[in-house]
Amino acid sequence: MTEDVILNAQELSKSFGGVNAVNNVSFSLSRGEIVGLIGPNGAGKTTLVNLLSGVITPDRGKIIFRGSEVTSQKPYQAARRGIARTFQIVQPFPNMTVLENVMAAVIFASGRTSDLRNARDLALEHLSFVGLAELAEQTAQTLTLPSRKRLELAKSLAMQPKVLMLDEVNAGLNAVEVEKALALIRKISEMGITILIIEHLMKVVLSLSDRILVLHHGELISQGNPLDVVNDPKVIEAYLGSKFTEKKLFIKDSLHE
User: Fold this and answer.
1) Least CB-packed of 66, 191, 209, 219 within 10 Å?
2) What residue spans of 41-113 are helical by DSSP H?
3) What is the DSSP letter of 210?
4) Cα(31)–Cα(74) distance, integer angstroms
5) 5-82+163-256 is classed CATH 3.30.70.3290
6) What is the pLDDT confidence band of residue 249, given thresholds at 50, 70 and 90?
7) What are phi and psi of 221, to 5 degrees?
8) Whole-prediction pTM value?
9) Residue 237: how many CB atoms within 10 A of its CB?
């Protein structure tokens, strides 16, 4: 394993009722890169994130994080080690303020401090970063969907992640909101945080990712730079469809926007 590899998944497998949700998947993530994770619905993307974040334990395989095996970790252990994730369905504590939601992440998820004043200061820093400082005293249930998505990012950043996994962070957003979200993701990457992002919007994946992983029926069928992956016949057949092969200009434009 090279020095800049921060997470290494080795032959991960997980079955549910005889269905192979993830089957013999191996890949690595390097420090500071953005890796797109794509595949049809039911391909095993969220299951893979659940394995990496300790929500479920693999039937087989190993997870190595910063040189140590963490295969059987619990979610709170993953969070305190620096493996954070967001969820496709955003569920903040609705009756708590925006600030209190992030303070909870600082105190209980990261374990950085038990001092409320310090936790408040740290939470405000993260809210300022995602553009929610002015809404700090509102209850989370009053937020719009884009703001709830930003709150989810602030909570994840409060854990001081080394690896941040984003599950459909752009789902439900319009084009302008997506562009703002992408700018935030790039800023997070520039901080040296490794990002693994599940995304269905191909233009987003192509413009954002350094590399792409493609899952199909729980198996990793392709990985590499975006242009090579979207032109891989296995990927076209399994996910993109034959019409996508006619959009070469779109692909090139997306990669250079």
Assistant:
1) 191
2) 45-52, 75-81, 98-104
3) S
4) 23
5) no
6) very low
7) -95, -15
8) 0.88
9) 12
